[in-house]
Amino acid sequence: xxxxxxxxxxxxxxxxxxxxxxxxxxxxxxxxxxxxxxxxxxxxxxxxxxxxxxxxxxxxxxxxxxxxxxxxxxxxxxxxxxxxxxxxxxx
Length: 91
Known about the structure:
By secondary structure, the chain is mainly alpha-helical. The chain has helices at 3-11, 18-33, 37-49, 66-78, 87-90. The relative contact order is 0.16.
């Protein structure tokens, strides 16, 4: 989900803004990790790609409920995190 951010942190590791970039990455990861990981990631993939088949789960996982899914998207949007960048990687 946030591999482009991680790549940017790595590429900028010696740059003056490296700490700031790492903090942004850590903040995004924290938002995602507040939920059950697999359902949260699969929801984000479904939202990014427009493919509802990402929402298929195998037990014991269950999809995020509508409120939690909306909260996840809203929190990431508030950070300026753009889900659309995932399209090129996962279609």
